Amino acid sequence: MKARRVAWILTWTLLGMPGPRMLSPWRIVLLRLFGARVGKGVKICGRVKVLMPWNLEIHDFSVLAERVDVYNFAHVTIGSQTCISQGSWLCTGSHDYKQESFPLYWKPIVIGSSVWIAAEAFVHPGTRIGDGVVIGARAVVSGFLQPWMVYSGNPAQLIGPRKMKESTAYPVHSGLEAG
Asked: How far apart are CA 152 and CA 139, in angstroms?
């Protein structure tokens, strides 16, 4: 196990972590070689850290943005069309401070589909995030987050339902508009 971890760390540090966003396909090859299950259309940006790729599953068309840290002693599952924004932490491990020996423990993280975890958010061990959830920037989340809700703050609080509306982000222009 230690040899595999050392091989992964050296490979990822030298060949996977550096470089621009366009090297995402190469990063995915490396992750798969070390046991990650990665769907189609996934993007892995530069300076992403993955502790144990064999404990990672990312479904179709999801994104890990720059500087995302996947600290995955336990399994991390990320649903389809999910965006984990820059600097976010998915942390499956911690220490039991109630015991004198301060032992490490870990619990899996499950993130649903169509989720957006905004910049620098922290996801605690054992967290389950339902489909469609939005987590605000720098939020600290734990426990179960209900589907199609918005959470923000430290600790994260329920803000309310995620209300979808027709997209106007990329308006189609006919060329007939005035002006």
From this structure: 5
- Residue 163 tokens read as 């209300």
- Give the amino acid at 116: W
- Whole-number pLDDT of residue 165: 79
The token pair at 62 is 């999801």
Domains and CATH numbers, the chain: 2-160 (2.160.10.10)
Single pTM value for the model:
0.90
- CB 130, CB 144: distance < 8 Å: yes
The predicted pLDDT at position 164 comes to 81
The type of residue at 62 is S
The overall longest dimension of the chain from CA atoms, in Å, is: 73
Q: Which residues of the chain have pLDDT under 70?
A: 167-179
> Which H, E and C letters describe 112-126, residue by residue?
CCCCEECCCCEECCC
Rounded to the nearest angstrom, the gap between the alpha carbon of residue 166 and the centroid of all alpha carbons in its chain is 26
